[in-house]
Design goal:
By secondary structure, the chain is an alpha/beta fold. Helices cover about 30% and strands about 20% of the residues.
């Protein structure tokens, strides 16, 4: 059976060298870990220009670097589990080759988190990573067990994250 998605298809996306790739990372069946995928589903309902590609990347891994390669701007959305953050709290930070922050708790239920994937990609130098990559994280409340319901605090963060993403898109287009 042929895989419905391949990175060769993603790499031929129109205007990719000039566009924005928004990636959601998470697992819908692990409660709050599914928040990024829910956000991707909401973004897919919005009328976005052809220069914006939206991808549900599941649990990510090195596929993050493959998916971002060749794009001008990357936005990664993920659930996080960072000490001292309240459930539903949003963190946003920019990643560059020279500035890869050490964030404990990114990609809360995936073994190979977004920062690890980006560090490897920058080190290997085999990828044309965007000059600008922004990671937006939403603090989880619950991921233990199996379930598709987001906690109320995490659910309430969705509109604010959508606003942040749309602001980033607008800012990118204005440059």
């Amino acid at each position: 059976m042929k895989c419905p998605f391949s990175f060769s298809e993603a790499s031929s996306f129109p205007e990719k060298d000039k566009g924005i790739h928004i990636i959601g990372i998470g697992n819908l069946t692990r409660f709050d870990d599914g928040v990024a995928i829910r956000l991707i589903q909401e973004l897919e309902k919005q009328p976005l220009s052809r220069e914006v590609k939206i991808t549900d990347l599941g649990t990510g891994g090195i596929d993050i670097a493959l998916a971002l390669s060749g794009w001008a701007f990357g936005i990664i959305i993920d659930a996080v589990d960072i000490p001292n953050l309240a459930p539903g709290e949003i963190v946003e930070f920019e990643v560059t080759e020279n500035r890869l922050p050490e964030i404990v708790g990114l990609s809360s239920s995936h073994g190979f988190n977004a920062l690890s994937a980006l560090k490897l990609a920058f080190t290997l130098d085999d990828f044309e990573l965007p000059k600008r990559i922004v990671i937006i994280g939403i603090q989880i409340k619950k991921i233990e067990g199996i379930g598709m319901t987001l906690s109320p605090e995490v659910e309430q963060a969705i509109p604010e994250v959508l606003l942040k993403v749309n602001t980033l898109i607008k800012t990118f287009k204005e440059k």
